[in-house]
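Title: Prediction job returns without error message
Component: structure pipeline
Severity: low
Priority: P3
Assignee: unassigned

Description:
Job completed but the reporter wants confirmation the result is attached to the right record. Sequence as submitted:
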Amino acid sequence: MKAGPVTIKARIESAEKPHVFAWTGRTLGISAIHTWRLDRSEGGTRVQTQESMEGFPARLLRAAMQKKLDSVLETWLRAMKIEAERPAS
């Protein structure tokens, strides 16, 4: 998959419909795991997401990578909300 200019070799690790989806990936000496959890909540769905990264580049550039990850997650979550609230056609 593409994450900006970087290609990540990813593999689905868990898919428990309809609540959990997790993948692992590697790129540029970094290993990552990302989990999405969806739970019913009053009036909708609560989405939780977590990602962890390991590897020398992740340790070296920790602050910058965390800032970028936070921005990407915010974009993904906003897009997910828009799509989930779109009227069915």
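Comment from assignee: result matches the submitted record. Strands lie at 2-3, 6-7, 9-16, 20-27, 30-41, 44-54.
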